[in-house]
Amino acid sequence: MTMIFGVPLAVFMGQLMLGLINGAFYALLSLGLAVIFGLLKIVNFAHGAMYMLGAFAALLGLQTLGLNYWLALLLVPLLVGGLGMLIERYMLRRIAHLDHLYGLLLTFGLALIAEGTLINFFGVSGSSYPTPTALQGGYNLGFMFLPIYRAWVLLAALVVCLGTWFIIERTRLGAYLRAGTENSALMQAFGVNVPQLVTLTYGFGVALAAFAGVLAAPLYPVSPTMGSSLLIVVFAVVVIGGMGSILGAVLTGLGMGLVEGLTKVYYPEAANTVIFLVMVLVLLVRPAGLFGKEA
Description:
mainly alpha; ABC transporter involved in vitamin B12 uptake, BtuC
C-alpha cells in the first residue's frame, strides 16, 4: 500500500479533495464578501444568510415547483441577488453616510431575522437535496475515487471566481466600479450612474453567495444555520487574503481549504481552529493580509 508521510495514499488524496471542495466554497463566499467590501466598504454580515437562502430556494423550488438543479443554478442567484439589491437600495443606502459599524449591525440583524424565520417554519434539522442525475457516480482513478459532483463543484467555483476577477480587474465595467468607489462625484460628472452601480455590485456579491448555496445543497444538509456556521470561517479567510482583495479571496479560500483538509489527516483536533491560527499569524506579520494593500 502506497503511503504519503505515514498515511495511505487513498486517505491522503480523499482528504485533499475534501479540502479543495471546502476551499471552493470558501473562495466563492469570500469573493462575494471581498467584492462588497472592496468596492462598497460594507462589512456584509448577512452573507452567510444569503448563502443559506440560496440553498433553501433551490430546495423549496424543487419541492413546490419542480424546479430542477440546472434551472435553480441559474434562477436562484438572480432571485437572491435581486433581494440583495432591494436591501442595498432601501436599507444600506440610508445609512451609507454613517460609520461602517452601522452597516455591519444592520446586516447582522438581517441575518438573524432570516435565520430565525426559517427556523420557525422548518426547524433546525437539515433536509437533503438530491444530486442531479447527470452528476451522480464517480470515477476510480486508481489512487482515489473521484465523485463527479465534487469535481463539478470545484470546476464551477473556479470558473465563476476567475470570471469575476477578470470582469473587475480587466474590463471597462470593472474600471467604472473601482473609479466610482474612489471618486463618485467625478464619475457622476462624466454621466455614470454611481448609485445604480453600487446597487448592482451589492446584488452581484449576494448572488455569488446564493450560487454557492445551490452548489452546496446536494453536498450538505440544507438548514437555517448552515450559513452562520460558515460565515466566521469565511471572514477569517477574507482577513488572511486581505480585505477587498479579489485575487486574495480566491487563492486564500482554496489554500485554506487545503490546509484544513491536510490538518484533518495529521492532527484532526486542530482542524476547526487551524484557519484562525493562520489568521492570527498573518495579522501579526502583515496586518493588511497576504494580498491586501497597506494603508
